Fold:
Amino acid sequence: MAIRLGDTAPDFTAETTEGPISFHDWIGDSWAVLFSHPKDFTPVCTTELGECARIKPEFDRRNVKIIGLSVDPADSHQKWAKDIEETQGTALNFPVIADPDRKISMLYDMIHPNASETFTVRSVYIIGPDKKVKLMLTYPASTGRNFVEILRVIDSLQLTANYSVATPVNWKEGEDVIIVPSMSDEEAREKFPAGWKAHKPYLRVTPQPNKAEAAKAGE
Ligand code: BEZ
Structure:
């Protein structure tokens, strides 16, 4: 069955570069990003894993755990990790799942047979602390992902979870946000003391709530 937004992310046990894990237990109270790689010792994947290791503090700051997956066994991942450190300048500092029998790749629909019968595509699943799937992305093997975009999406998802706001086109951290249409003006007055600009009754724009709170505290 295809996984859809809002579904509970399928749980699994797996061998990783950091030992065995049980996925939901490993996520705990954090957010999680699960992302697949077509194969070990491939060039685009090598750059992606190096970049994720470099920006891991950005994920940590957002209470997000990251975990890669590749269809090769753990001893192959360990050998590849040496190349990642050598060529990308940062050692792997998060687990990579070994999935030689493709059990997890199949569970998460990461193998798209018309792209490749054997390798996974570049899937990204962002999962909340409630273990629900919040976002899914699929890239082809030939295109490295933009992890700045993934951090941007996490910022948006966490604002929605904490403040019932949505983020407009091309939104970036610190910019104005949108009050969700399901919220009445009365409730919005309580939640957004900084007020809002109503371009239309359904298009109400307000300063990013956690920035507005920080600015008020610093007054
Ligand atoms: C890569 O990671 O570089 C890659 C993997 C499979 C096909 C094309 C590129």
